[in-house]
Specification:
heterodimer; A: 2 domains; B: about 230 residues; Rossmann fold; four-stranded antiparallel beta sheet; 10 strands; about 30% strand; globular
Chain lengths: ~400, ~230
């Protein structure tokens, strides 16, 4: 009976090719859209998380927080002043999950080569910076420990900055001048970084790196830094490291309410990003599912027309001995075939769409299996659900009236 | 001779809005196995209604109907469908073949609903087509053959399940007189082979092919005429 029903259903769908195709189209687009959107969402999320991971391994950043002014007093800058090199050493010492801490101090100045000058951010840092940030050197070397100890005026340029300052010339060994705070300092270029692209804190390629001691002692003569960059031993220990740092900072700064500092970890950023992208994916998938529902209504519409049009056929079949269940089954089979054929075509459509979108958006081509399963079963469900009413209508027809129908 | 059809005081009332229409007002008759009976009457005499009830397509409002000694009035929709499938072969004025199926597939339909396995079905279908001399058209579609040929296919379909009765409703109504006579010859032939046939018609010449004519008028039997 199942094979017979399927055969009859396919025959009648084939007899109305154009109509069958059009009513299937809603399901094709719906299933395709669900698969493409969810897959593209998965692919782009992977790309984003990979980029975040690329920013640095197990990186935890500690910033001073500006205090609110109270009772007419100015907001205190004291919290920033507590971010000293000693604090950095203490953190390294007292937090067992923390592998290393490096201080960062940024100044903004104008870098001048022969005839080009560019306003740029100069980061005072240490040798370990590249390791924590997953940042690689393209040419020359990065700042080393001795540069820092001896306050050598050496500079490493970001990829973009190097080409802006020196065009195609090899910048290594060249001198650049830094105009900071009205004074001129001379630096020797010792390295150029690899291209890294944008990050949360702006484009890394447009920055320059100099030894921390130069920024602190020669440029600013300040005893405090902007932020501390800590690295946990592994990503498993990152959460524990954050807790340790938090605890230590609370005690050290006598700041139980954590008003003087702020900690961001990569995990936290990843969590935020993935919760945002998950919400987006759910929402877009939901919208696509609505189009699937609309496709189902299209099928119901066509099935109702088909039932009315074939009233006489139903009458004939009943006169020849078809029971209500035979007729019900025949029409249900038809809507189910429509929706499952549409579902299969939709999987193909979604696959192709995902492929081209992935090519275009330059993210990994991933077909979300779960979206294929869900979209296809939803399509089958819709075929049954929206096919049931027309099929029941057909099954319940009175044979005498159906035979008389012109 | 066993009795195939026995109806007793059959009544059918239609309610058209507030108007009550009595299509059948108490009909009793019997048909024996192997008989050829014509039911004759002008339009509005109730012969279509009677045919629908005899054909298990409709229920009577009152009265009894026994088909091969089964009380049809007590059957539900599904059992009626089974009765139509096993005991009745319909031949309609409009042929009522499914246009998208081949003639073979059309004739096969009752056997499909009877749940017969494929090989046996195929064999029986071809035999029925052969019996009415239309087997050479088995793989054509109904719209590719003439009216007379269509009606032969329809008769093959009515025969294919070896029904207890063949119910023919104006089977020559859509045919020219020459083709109509050929179709009537087929019925005569089938009757001689032992099939029980009930012919509903309003044409006296056709009615006379039967052995007995039941004249209907205004929902009751006007008179019965036994021929030959």
């Amino acid at each position: 009976m199942i094979l017979q029903g399927l055969k009859i259903a396919l025959e009648s769908l084939w007899a109305n090719k154009m109509r069958s195709f059009l009513s299937m189209l809603g399901i094709v687009i719906g299933v395709g859209a669900v698969i493409a959107i969810v897959s593209v969402g998965t692919g782009s999320t992977q790309q984003i998380t990979a980029r975040i991971a690329n920013l640095g391994s197990n990186m935890i950043t500690i910033y001073p927080r500006a205090l609110r002014g109270q009772f007419g007093r100015l907001s205190s800058i004291s919290s920033q002043q507590k971010f000293t090199l000693e604090l950095s050493e203490h953190l390294e010492e007292f937090c067992p999950s923390v592998k290393q801490v490096i201080p960062l101090k940024q100044v903004n100045g104008r870098l001048i080569s022969d005839d080009v000058n560019i306003n740029s951010a100069i980061i005072g840092t240490r040798a370990e910076y590249t390791e924590i940030n997953n940042y690689e050197i393209a040419q020359g070397v990065f700042i080393n420990q001795e540069d820092d100890l001896e306050r050598r005026q050496v500079i490493v340029l970001g990829h973009q900055l190097a080409s802006d300052l020196f065009d195609n010339e090899n910048p290594l060994g060249n001198l650049v001048r830094l105009n900071y705070d009205g004074r001129i300092f001379q630096f020797t270029v010792i390295g150029v970084m690899k291209e890294k692209g944008g990050s949360m804190a702006g484009n890394l390629d447009e920055r320059a790196y100099v030894p921390l001691s130069v920024v602190m002692d020669r440029l600013t003569a300040q005893k405090y830094v902007d932020s501390l960059l800590a690295q946990a031993y592994s990503s498993d220990e990152a959460n524990r490291a954050v807790q340790e740092i938090e605890y230590f900072m609370q005690k050290h700064l006598e700041d139980e309410k954590r008003e003087q500092f702020r900690i961001t970890s990569q995990d936290e950023i990843l969590d935020t990003v993935s919760s945002v992208t998950n919400t987006m994916n759910m929402m877009l998938g939901g919208i696509a599912a609505i189009s699937l529902l609309v496709g189902g209504i299209g099928i119901m519409n066509i099935m109702l027309v088909s039932v009315t049009e074939r009233t006489r056929e139903i009458g004939i079949r009943k006169a020849l001995g078809a029971q209500n269940k035979n007729i019900l089954f025949q029409f249900l089979m038809e809507s189910l075939s429509l929706s499952s054929l549409g579902g299969v075509a939709g999987i193909g459509f979604g696959w192709v769409a995902t492929y081209f979108l992935a090519q275009y958006g330059n993210w990994p081509f991933i077909i979300s299996t779960i979206s294929v399963i869900i979209a296809f079963s939803f399509a089958l469900f819709i075929g049954i659900f929206f096919g049931l009413y027309p099929a029941m209508k057909a099954a319940k027809m009175n044979p005498v009236d159906a035979l008389r129908y012109e | 001779m066993s009795i195939v059809i026995r109806v007793e005081q059959l009544k059918k009332v239609y309610h058209l809005g507030k108007v009550k229409v009595e299509a059948l007002r108490g009909i009793s008759f019997q048909v024996e196995e192997g008989e050829f009976v014509s039911i004759m009457g002008p339009s509005g005499s109730g012969k279509s209604t009677l045919m629908h009830i005899i054909g298990c397509l409709d229920y009577p409002s009152e009265g009894k109907y026994f088909l091969t000694n089964h009380d049809v009035t007590k059957l539900d929709d599904n059992q009626l469908a089974i009765f139509r499938n096993k005991k009745i072969g319909f031949v309609f004025q409009q042929f009522n073949l499914l246009p998208r199926a081949t003639n073979l597939r059309n004739v096969e339909i009752p056997l499909i609903y009877a749940g017969m396995p494929f090989r046996e079905r195929q064999r029986q279908t071809l035999k029925a087509l052969q019996d009415v001399g239309i087997n050479h058209r088995a793989h054509h579609h109904p719209n590719e053959i003439s009216g007379g040929e269509k009606q032969r296919v329809a008769i093959a379909r009515a025969l294919v399940n070896n029904p207890s009765i063949i119910l023919a409703d104006e089977p020559t109504g859509n045919l020219d007189s020459k083709t109509g006579l050929e179709i009537m010859k087929i019925f005569q032939n089938l009757n001689q082979k032992g099939n029980t046939i009930i012919l509903v018609t309003h044409e006296p010449e056709l009615a006379h092919y039967a052995g007995r004519i039941i004249h209907l008028r205004d929902g009751i039997i006007n008179r019965e005429e036994v021929l030959a």
